[in-house]
From TrEMBL:
Domain named PPM-type phosphatase: residues: 1-136
UniProt family annotation: Belongs to the PP2C family.
Name recorded for this polypeptide: Protein phosphatase
InterPro entries assigned: PPM-type-like_dom_sf (IPR036457), PPM-type_phosphatase-like_dom (IPR001932), PPTC7 (IPR039123)
Cofactor(s) essential for the protein: Mn(2+); Mg(2+)
Catalytic activity: O-phospho-L-seryl-[protein] + H2O = L-seryl-[protein] + phosphate; O-phospho-L-threonyl-[protein] + H2O = L-threonyl-[protein] + phosphate
Keyword entries, A-Z: Hydrolase, Magnesium, Manganese, Metal-binding, Protein phosphatase
RNA-binding in keyword set: no
Organism name: Solanum tuberosum (Potato)
Entry keyword Ion transport: no
Length: 136
């Protein structure tokens, strides 16, 4: 939240943006989210968490900006979600779910993980919150 507040209060240029910033600390995903950006958590090939996408109206998301018609940092959502080893987090910006259904995303992630396994690439949990790729 501090990063977004600093960016908001120190930006002089006109413009606006939606945002999703995510940090992983052991088994907690902490996010700050504004507008039609967000994330999903996938466990055992199924979406177990979808961040909410608040909007003022249809196709009218909250946006952080310094103009009169934009929102300030008070509109930002802070979310904590518990995750497990092997969960997959997919972050997105506006437009993904205008074009891809949640079930399609589950299939894309599942197929992508199968492809990695077929290539002999696996994740090894090195320490809390850190993963590396290694060839087997």
């Amino acid at each position: 939240m501090e990063v977004l507040n600093d960016a908001y209060f120190n930006t002089k240029c006109q413009g606006s943006s939606t945002t999703c910033i995510l940090t992983l600390m052991c088994d907690i995903v902490h996010t700050v989210n504004l507008g039609d950006s967000g994330f999903v958590a996938i466990r055992d090939r199924v979406i177990v968490y979808k961040s909410k996408i608040p909007q003022k109206g249809f196709d009218y998301p909250f946006q952080l900006g310094n103009g009169v018609k934009f929102d300030d940092s008070s509109a930002i959502q802070e979310i904590n979600v518990t995750v497990r080893t092997w969960d997959v987090i997919v972050m997105f910006t506006d437009g993904l779910f205008d074009n891809v259904y949640y079930t399609e995303l589950e299939k894309l992630v599942r197929d992508g993980l199968v492809d990695l396994c077929e290539l002999g690439i696996f994740w090894r949990n090195c320490s809390c919150g850190r993963f590396i790729f290694e060839e087997q």
